[in-house]
Amino acid sequence: MEITDAEFDAANRRGAAKRAAFPVASAVRYDRRIGRVVISLASGLQIAFIPRDVQGLEGARPADLIDAEISPSGLGIRFPKLDADLYIPALLEGFLGSKSWMASQMGKVGGRASTDAKTAAARKNGKLGGRPKKVTEPASS
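-> structure tokens emitted (141 positions)
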């Protein structure tokens, strides 16, 4: 697939607009002491986050995070050992993953919530014998 000069120029304009709207990364490192990825931006702002909170980094070990690279545009961070990329504008907008991944993470938080109503419902269900046992069908040959 060939890219026309017009498409190339349009892409460059979009990139320039993003760089004007968002500060670019000037440094990235994994801080073992605090267990966070730290991204320093040209504006002086630093972003630090726990890798398990970010899609693509959730199972990363410290050794997987130490060789992170800044993209040529300065708007992305690449983790070569994980084949994972982060987009800085999305981080600044508060998204650490795709919409479906973020929804699943929020669902996990909601499931851990403990309220008086949830406790009462669990006790009532327990008095009824709890959850029914799963019936497994015998494997057919």
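The helical segments are 5-21, 62-65, 88-92, 99-112, 116-127.
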